[in-house]
């Protein structure tokens, strides 16, 4: 079986705790992003006597989930609200689906607004473009 380093790192990370550099390598998230996730209460770590962060087993999956939620357009405050419900199936309620549906509606409204802006801009380009015959 051919396993990439990142794939191997993710496999090992599921079973062991890891330092910030290892978690960064396993997830592709920068160390700065990992510290930000921790500041926002999205990720937890313990500290060594020397102050180095040690992340628990499962941190790779947690960071991957956070990255997916960020890519879906959720901000860190919203992620902090929904993450416990997503991470623990026993906490899933209609509230979670409603909250995610609300985010979907928000993104859909932004897309509609951007489509209208694009159409206006395309009209301006057409209106003010110089053609060889009119130059």
UniProtKB/TrEMBL annotation:
PROSITE patterns: HTH_MERR_2. GO terms for molecular function: DNA binding; DNA-binding transcription factor activity. Residues 17-85 form the HTH merR-type domain. CDD domains: HTH_MerR-like_sg3. Coiled coil: none annotated. It holds the Pfam family MerR_1. It comes from the Bacteria. Keywords: DNA-binding. InterPro entries: DNA-bd_dom_put_sf (IPR009061), MerR-type_HTH_dom (IPR000551), MerR_fam (IPR047057). SUPFAM superfamilies: Putative DNA-binding domain (SSF46955). This is MerR family transcriptional regulator. It comes from Paractinoplanes tereljensis.
